[in-house]
Amino acid sequence: MNKIIVFMLLIAFAASCGPVREDTDNEPPVAPKHEKELVIHGDTRIDPYYWMNDRDDPAVIDYLEAENDYLEAVMAHTSDFQEELFEEMKSRIRQDDESAPFYSNGYFYYVRYEEGQEYPIYCRKSGSLDAGEEILLNVNELAADHPYYNVGTYDISLDNRWMAFTVDTVGRRQYTVMVKDLATGDITETGIRYAGGDVVWAADNSTFFYTSIDPGTLRYYRINRFDTRGSGNPEPVYEEMDETFYYIGVSRSKDNRYIMINANATLSNEVWLLKADDPKGEFRVFQPRRHELRYTPVSYNGKFFVLTNYQADNFRLMETGSDNTGIDNWREVVAHRDDVLLERVELFDDFMVLQERERGLRQIYIRNLLTGRSHYLPFEEQAYTAHIGINAEMSTPVLRFNYTSLTTPMSNYDYNMETGEMTLIRQQEVLGEFSPDDYETRRYYVEARDGTGVPLTVVYRRGIEMDGNNPLLLYGYGSYGSSADPRFNINLLSLLNRGFVYAIAHVRGGQELGRRWYEDGKLLRKQNTFNDFIDCAEFLISGGYTAPDRLFASGGSAGGLLVGAVINDRPDLFKGVIAAVPFVDVVTTMLDESIPLTTAEYDEWGNPNEKEYYEYMLSYSPYDNVSDQDYPNMLVTSGLHDSQVQYWEPTKWVAKLRQHNTGDSSILLYTNMQAGHGGASGRFQRLRELARQYAFLLDLTEEI
C-alpha cells in the first residue's frame, strides 16, 4: 500500500518475466497453512496464511529466508548475466557526479558522489562556486557500520552555524535527529527518536521544530519544539487527534517569516502559523479545517497567496492579508479552469510562477507582478516532464526549473524572467554511447471501454518493426492522485537497447488529467484503474507493438495492487509481471487499524467497516481474488521493515498464487531483510536489485 506518495515510484522501472528455466531439483518453499476465519458483515473469509503477520516469529523469518534461497537457486544460471547488467548500468553513471548547485542565504548548496562510494556527500560553498568546499555530511562515513542508512532531510540555521538532520538506519522511516556545529564539525545526538523526517530552525538559531510519529501506527501526529540551549527535553506544540489526518509536517516559509505546521488528510488539510522570530509563541490556525478543503498558503510581502480547491476542483489562486487569513477574506487572483490543474505557485519579489497541468503535460506560467505581462515556457516534445526546481531566494529574477523526458536526461535550467535568457546549468550525463536521437517517444490517447481517452506514453529504439514481435514492459500506478510522468531513466537503456518497448499507462487514479481523473479512479470507481490498464495493453497489442507472449506488466506499491488485480482478471494478456512491494491484501489491511496509516486512507480506498466499501474492495483485492487459473510468471519484491506495505502482504500473496496456479509459470519472492519500502539505501545496492529484475525478464525473453 503506497501510503506516502513522495517515494511511491522508486521502483517504477522494474521489469517483468516469462517462464524461468528452473533446475528440477529446486522446489519452492511450502508455506504452512494455519487457517484464520475473518468475519464481518455476515461474510466469512478464510486466510490460510494470516500467521505470517508476525515479524518476531522465528518461523516467519525462516520462511522468508527460504524464499530468498529458492529465488537464488532458480536464478543461479543468470548470475553472470546479472553481474554483466550491473556493470553495464554502473558504467553509464558518472560515479563522481554532483547535483546542480542552488543558492540560499549566502551559500551554494549541492550534493556529490565519489568514485565507488554508495552514499552522497552534502556540501556548500560560501558566496561563490569558486570558493572552497565545506563538507556538511559525508554519508559514506556515517553509514559505515550500518547495512541501511538514509538521511531524511536537513535544515541550516539562518546564521549558517547549525545543521539539524534526520537519520533512518532501519528503512522503516523512523528517524533520529542530530545536530552538527558547522564551525567545529561536532555532531550531537539529541536523543530524539521516532521523528518523522521534518526538521526546521526558527530565527533564533537555537530552536528547531520537528515531527514525531506514533511508534505503533507510525502516524505522523505531533510537532515538537526543541531548544538546543535549553533543558534538552522536547516540548509538544501541536498534536493531531484525528487519526484520518495521517501526515503532520513542519516547514519554514520561503521568506523566512513563518514556521508552518501542515496537517494532512487525503482530502483535507489545515495550516498553523508561528512567527519564525517568536519560537516560544503560540501557533495560530490559518483557516480551520473543512471536509474536502485543501489549501496551501505562501507568504509574500506582508500577505499570503493561497492555492486552494475551494469551489474549484482543479484549484485556483487566492490572496489574503496576513492578519485575517480565514476563507471569507480570500480574493481570487487566478480563476479555476475545467481543463487545467493548478499544481503549484512559486513567488519571487517581482514574479509569480505557476506550475499547471493540461492534457497530462505540465506547463510553467510566468507573470511579472509589476507589469502584469505573462507568458509560458515553450516545451516541444510530445511527452515530457517539466517542474519548478529549488528556488530558495525571493530577490532574484532567475527561475530554476527542471526538464526531462523518456529520451532527454534530467536537465536543470536557469531562466531569467526579465530577459528571457535560458541557461542549462546541468544535464544528467550518460557515459558511453548514447544519443537521444536513437530513441523515439509517442503519446497516445487510448479509448477505454467507457469511451474515456487514457494517455499512454511509449518509448523505443528507432528502427524497430511494429510487427507484434517486440517485448514490451507496461508500467502503471494510478492511486493517490500521483501522476506517472515520463522521466528519463538511465537504467532503462539496458532494456531499450535489447529491443524492448517501454510504455506508461496514465490510468485513472492519478492526476494527469486533473482532479476528476483522480476521483474517477478511487473508492467505488477503483475498477476504472484496472480497466484502463487492460485497455492500454490491448491497444499496444492491436497496434503491433507487442503480443501477449511478449508483454510484461510492472507496478510498485499501489501499482502492485494494480497489476495484482489485472492478472486476476486477464492473466492471458501477460507473459510476466513484476510487482514491487505490492499492496495486495486490501481488505485485511484496511480492517486492521493497528497497521500503520490504515485509518488515514479511508478516503482513498473506503472504510470496509461499512458494508458497501467492504464488498467493493473485496471484489478487486488481489489476494482475495486469486483463483485456479494459469498465472503469468512473476517476481514479487518486499522489504522486511516496510512501513507502508507490510512484508506479509506480498509473502502471503505469493504463497496463495502458487497454491492456485494451474500453469507452469514461476512465481518468485525476494525480501530485502535489511530495508523497507524503497529497497536498498546505497546506489550500487539498488542497481544490483534492479539487475536481478532485468535478468529475470531478459532470461524469459531468451535475450541472455
Q: How many beta-strand segments? A: 38
Oligomer: single chain
Q: Any idea of the CATH topology of the largest domain?
A: Rossmann fold
Give the strand order, joined by hyphens, for the main sheet. Answer: 31-32-34-33-35-36-37-38
CATH superfamily of the largest domain: Alpha/Beta hydrolase fold, catalytic domain
Could you say which overall geometry the principal axes of the C-alpha atoms support? globular
Residue share in helix: 10-25%
What does this structure look like?
The longest helix is centred in the last third of the chain and has 18 residues, at 683-700. It is built from twelve helices and 38 strands. The strands form nine sheets. Strands 31-32-34-33-35-36-37-38 form an eight-stranded mixed β-sheet, sandwiched between helices. The protein has a four-stranded antiparallel β-sheet with strand order 3-4-5-6. Residues 1-24 have low confidence and may be disordered. The protein is globular, with a radius of gyration of 25 Å. It has three domains: 5-21 and 59-91 and 433-700, Rossmann fold, CATH 3.40.50; 96-340, Methylamine Dehydrogenase, Chain H (7 Propeller); 341-428. It is an alpha+beta fold. The protein is 17% helix and 32% strand.
